[in-house]
Structures are given as C-alpha cells and as structure tokens.
C-alpha cells in the first residue's frame, strides 16, 4: 500500500516548483511564463504547510506582482473559489477545496 505523504513533503514539492520557475527566468523572458495565479497558489500552500500566515503584502512581494495586478489576481482566485474571501490588506489563505486539490496534484506529481 502506498504511503500517504504529508503536507511538509508536499510543501517541498511546491518549493521545488517555485524554485524551478524562478530559475527559468534566468534563461527565458519572463513574459513567456506568466502563471501568476499558479504561483500564488503554490506560495499559499507552502505557507499552509509551514503553519505560516501570509499577508497580502508579503504574498504580492513574493510573486513580484505590482499591487494592483496582484489584487486583481487575488480577486479572480476568490471568485474561482481557490482563495478565501478577504478584504484588501488582509491575510490570504487557500480555500478548503484548493488545499484538497493542491494535495491531490502534489501527490500525483510525487508518484511519477
């Protein structure tokens, strides 16, 4: 029977994906890889696994997005049900559905 991996191991996989994304910017123009929503979800999952709270400001700094663009992406993620409803400037967390989906995705990737 396959052992279930824990959020810390999933977080390591998410960190690997974030590092890979950051490194590819050294080799390719960043406009080729505008996956802002995905990066936000990965950052939020890593913070969840580390028992850390992420403020909107810190999240946007981590993504490198301008504040206005970052807030638009966050609003979109709220409408899509991936991020909990929030007010501008509040801490940002994944929805329960997004956590479940991220766990399933990272488990699938780890099993490859």
| Fourth-tier CATH superfamily name | Winged helix-like DNA-binding domain superfamily/Winged helix DNA-binding domain
Strand content: under 5%
User: Would you state the CATH class?
Assistant: Mainly Alpha
Given as residue ranges, the uncertain stretches (5+ residues, pLDDT < 50) are none
Please explain how this structure is put together.
The mean pLDDT is 85. The protein has 112 residues and is mainly alpha-helical. The chain has one domain (7-110): Winged helix-like DNA-binding domain superfamily/Winged helix DNA-binding domain (Arc Repressor Mutant, subunit A). The chain contains five helices and two strands. The two termini are 16 Å apart. The protein has a two-stranded antiparallel sheet. Helix 1 packs across helix 5 (96-110).
Quick rundown:
This protein is mainly α and 112 residues long.
Question: What descriptive keywords fit this protein?
Answer:
two-stranded antiparallel ribbon; mainly alpha; single chain; 112 residues; 61% helix; 4% strand; Arc Repressor Mutant, subunit A; globular
Helix and strand topology:
Elements: H1 7-24, H2 36-49, E1 54-55, H3 56-63, H4 67-79, E2 91-92, H5 96-110
Antiparallel strand pairs: 1-2
InterPro entries: WH_DNA-bd_sf
């Amino acid at each position: 029977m396959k052992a279930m991996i824990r959020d810390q191991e999933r977080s390591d996989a998410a960190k690997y994906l974030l590092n890979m994304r950051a490194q590819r910017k050294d080799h390719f123009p960043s406009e080729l890889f505008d996956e802002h929503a995905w990066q936000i979800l990965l950052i939020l999952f890593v913070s969840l696994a580390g028992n850390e709270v992420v403020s909107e400001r810190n999240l946007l700094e981590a993504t490198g997005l301008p504040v206005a663009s970052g807030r638009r992406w966050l609003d979109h993620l709220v409408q899509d049900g991936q991020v909990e409803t929030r007010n501008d400037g509040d801490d940002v967390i994944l929805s329960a559905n997004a956590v479940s989906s991220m766990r399933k995705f990272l488990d699938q990737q780890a099993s490859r």
